[in-house]
Amino acid sequence: MRQCVALASGCFQPTERRRLTMIPKSGSRFSDAIMVDEYALESFAATVRACRICVENPVGKPLPHEPRPVLRPSSSARILIASQAPGTKVHITGMPFTDASGDRLRSWLGVTSEEFYDIEKFAIVPMGFCFPGQDAKGGDLPPRRECAPAWRAPLMALMPRIDLVLTIGIYAQSWHMGAARRPSLTETVMDWRAIWDASGSRKVLPLPHPSWRNTGWLKKNPWFEMDLLPFLRSEIRYRLD
């Protein structure tokens, strides 16, 4: 029987099946190179895309529709978009941020659609992989509680080149920032400079969700576009160029 290495509920094949790639950690010096196991990430992502925990072993009520996990992990990208969960349009298309929120997010980042969907430049891994459904008022429900405990830590371990995490919304901020998250989203985003300085080699930057529902928040907090966005665009461009 062939041996494999288990990680969460995934199973990886022996070394001869893997593609081990040396990638410069800083983008310039090979002496800082890190080993990236491309096959392991592909195999694990395939396991995640077949996940049915929220239907077969849910926390609370089961997902009200057929699961369709949406994620774009990357072994080469330096930027991770840690978003919330797919919406209705993304549930249909299977591609993250193919909606008005995506248009606003790309504007915030100062990137084209081609750059945004280049898997070698951006990893997109939401806190919940499936569209969670809607509440009585028509708003999206929170990300499913099953996803992050089952999958997030192993996925992060398989993306060692990530050195900038954009945490969109309180769920991503809670997981990636822990005690560094402030009591409210506004306080967290407002304190972005201190959070940036306190983060280690993997920098973290908190953002609000780019949904149209937050248009009022943006108007009330003009410092976001005046101070945070220019800094964000500079850091993005530094990692893309």
Structural class: alpha/beta
Helix percentage range: 25-40%
Determine Rg (CA atoms, Å). 18 Å
Mean pLDDT: 88
Please give the number of β-strands.
Answer: 8
- Overall geometric form: globular
Q: Termini distance?
A: 46 Å
Contiguous uncertain segments of 5+ residues:
1-17, 26-32
Largest sheet: 4 strands, parallel
Strand content: 5-15%
Sketch the topology as an H/E string, one letter per element: EEEEHHEHHHEHEHHHEHH
- How many helix segments? 11
Strands ordered across the widest β-sheet: 6-5-7-8
Describe the overall structure.
InterPro entries: HI_0220.2, Uracil-DNA_glycosylase-like, Uracil-DNA_glycosylase-like_sf. By secondary structure, the chain is an alpha/beta fold. The protein contains eleven helices and eight strands. The protein has helices at 38-49, 53-56, 88-93, 100-109, 113-116, 147-157, 170-177, 185-190, 192-198, 215-220, 223-240, and strands at 5-7, 10-12, 20-24, 33-37, 79-82, 122-124, 164-168, 203-207. A four-stranded parallel β-sheet has the order 6-5-7-8, sandwiched between helices. It has a two-stranded antiparallel sheet with strand order 1-2. A two-stranded antiparallel ribbon has the order 3-4. The longest helix is centred in the last third of the chain and has 18 residues, at 223-240.
